[in-house]
Design goal:
Length: 140
Amino acid sequence: MAKTVRFSVSISSDLLERFDHAIKERSYGSRSKAVRDMIVNFLIERAWEGSDEEVMGSLTILYDHEVKGLVEKLLDIQHENRGIIISTMHIHVDERNCMEILAVKGRPKEIRNLSDRILGCKGVKHGKLVMSSTGKEVTC
Ligand code: NI
C-alpha cells in the first residue's frame, strides 16, 4: 500500500467555503477524501482520453424493444464486441421498455466506439457510459 502524504493547497477562502459546503451535502467526512476522489476522477478521465491502458466501465441503456430490428441490432453489436463486454444485465422495465447494463473492459477507444454504436441505435431512448478503472493504478 502506498504511503499517505500531506500537502497544502492555496485557494481563496470563498472557494474553500463553497467546497466545504458542497462536500458536506455529499456526506463526505473529510476534505481529504473529497480531494482524493477528485484526483482519482481526474486521473481516470485522463486515462480514458489519451491512453491505451486497459480501463473498465459500464454502459446503461434504456430502449424500446418494440422498435423494429432494434433487439437484433443490439445483439449483433454485443456479439461482435464479446471480447470487451464481460457481463450484461437485462431488466424488463414494462411491456415495451428494457434496461440493459453492460460491464465493459478494454481499451478506451474500443469501449467508446461500442458505446457510440449502441447509443446511436434508433429506439435507444437514453444511455450513459460510466468510465471507471481496473483499479490497478488507483490507490486509497
Ligand atoms: Ni426486456
